[in-house]
């Protein structure tokens, strides 16, 4: 099942002063969002010393195509760290299927009620991580929700108190941005009281992340004797803003033959020695904090804005 919704969102409106209430002292998670032409990636991280997350809600922006999937067909892959490194698949399930969370087996609908207060949702997924399973409840954002103008789907999950989740990465196949741009995603996370199974509603925090969709790396390669002069540029979100200092790797097939750093405008240049007739390149940007305060849209204390990381690749540029 594929869905799309379009809206115009002002980036400026999302940058401002944080709510007056302080962030929870022992709970300061981060999250980042990025996408390419086939997949959206959501990354959650927190310090091992932080309180465990009781509920995590990710909000998918309005200008996206999303694939809720069908039972029997995976909608993506997942990796996590919960005391050890885990990996697995994101699988649509039925509300009547059984799932085990924190050692307790119930139906998915019963797990939904315990997590969200209702058994009714637009879709149900399970993160199958071998030794760990975690249901995800998928819903269209209702018109009464304050986020309805900036988000249209939300993904809600409630890890068990003893899960010790410190990182989680969802690769959602078929979820992509409708147009290149800086698209704001939102996360609301609520902690447990340390050492208990009690959810601290007052301790909920918000983090915002900008998906700079449509990352590209492009270059021209001109042969000069035994060397090749290369001039190029990295773009993301439709422009080259805040792309200085990235490492661009020039490739002969899969072999690295040279690297260069981008300028503040995303441009780069270098000379390599090669006889290759075609060259490729890759540029990677890490997730980074933009600000440590922001205007909340979920009603919780907004503790950070981030830029999602990305990898841009071009495979075969002809050497002229």
Rounded mean pLDDT is 91
In angstroms, what is the radius of gyration? Answer: 21 Å
Can you count the helices? 1
Proportion of helical residues: under 10%
Shape designation: elongated
Show unreliable segments: 6-24
Structure commentary:
Strand 19 and strand 20 form a beta hairpin. This protein has 2 domains: 24-212, Immunoglobulin-like; 216-302 and 310-318, Immunoglobulin-like (Sandwich), CATH 2.60.40. The radius of gyration is 21 Å and the shape is elongated. The protein is mostly beta strands and 320 residues long. It contains 1 helix and 25 strands.
Attribute tags:
13-stranded mixed beta sheet; mainly beta; 320 residues; 3% helix; Immunoglobulin-like; elongated; 1 helix; four-stranded antiparallel beta sheet
In short:
It contains one helix and 25 strands. By secondary structure, the protein is mainly beta.
What's the topology here?
Elements: E1 2-5, E2 30-35, E3 39-45, E4 53-61, E5 64-67, E6 76-81, E7 85-92, E8 98-101, E9 104-107, H1 108-116, E10 123-128, E11 133-140, E12 151-157, E13 167-173, E14 176-177, E15 181-191, E16 205-213, E17 216-224, E18 227-235, E19 247-252, E20 255-261, E21 267-273, E22 278-285, E23 288-291, E24 301-307, E25 310-318
Parallel strand pairs: 16-24
Antiparallel strand pairs: 1-5, 2-3, 3-13, 4-12, 4-15, 5-14, 6-7, 6-13, 7-10, 8-9, 10-11, 11-12, 15-16, 17-18, 18-21, 19-20, 19-22, 22-25, 23-24
């Amino acid at each position: 099942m594929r869905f799309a919704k379009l809206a115009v969102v002002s980036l400026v409106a999302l940058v401002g002063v944080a709510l007056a209430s302080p962030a929870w002292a022992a709970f300061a998670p981060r999250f980042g969002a990025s996408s390419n032409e086939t997949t959206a990636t959501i990354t959650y991280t927190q310090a091992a010393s932080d309180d465990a997350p009781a509920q995590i809600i990710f909000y998918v922006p309005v200008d996206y195509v999303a694939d809720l999937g069908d039972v029997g067909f995976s909608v993506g892959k997942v990796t996590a760290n919960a005391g050890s490194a885990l990996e697995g698949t994101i699988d649509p399930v039925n509300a009547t299927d059984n799932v085990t969370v924190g050692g307790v087996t119930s139906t998915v609908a019963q797990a939904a009620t315990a997590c969200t207060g209702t058994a009714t949702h637009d879709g149900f997924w399970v993160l199958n991580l071998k030794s760990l399973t975690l249901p995800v409840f998928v819903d269209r954002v209702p018109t009464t929700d304050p986020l309805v103008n900036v988000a249209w789907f939300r993904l809600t999950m409630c890890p068990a108190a003893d899960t010790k989740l410190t990182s989680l990465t969802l690769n959602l196949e078929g979820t992509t941005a409708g147009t290149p741009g800086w698209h704001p995603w939102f996360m609301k996370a609520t902690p447990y009281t340390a050492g208990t199974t009690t959810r601290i509603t007052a301790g909920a925090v918000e983090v915002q992340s900008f998906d700079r969709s449509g990352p590209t790396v492009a270059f021209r390669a001109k042969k000069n004797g035994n060397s090749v002069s290369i001039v190029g540029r990295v773009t993301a979100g439709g422009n080259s803003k805040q792309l200085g200092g990235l490492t661009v790797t020039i490739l002969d097939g899969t072999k690295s033959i040279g690297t260069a750093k981008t300028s503040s405008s995303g441009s780069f240049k270098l000379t390599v020695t090669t006889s290759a007739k075609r060259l490729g390149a890759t540029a990677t940007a890490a997730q980074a904090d933009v600000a440590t305060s922001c205007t909340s849209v979920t009603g919780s204390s907004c503790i950070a804005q981030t830029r999602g990381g990305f990898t841009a690749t071009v495979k075969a540029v002809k050497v002229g």
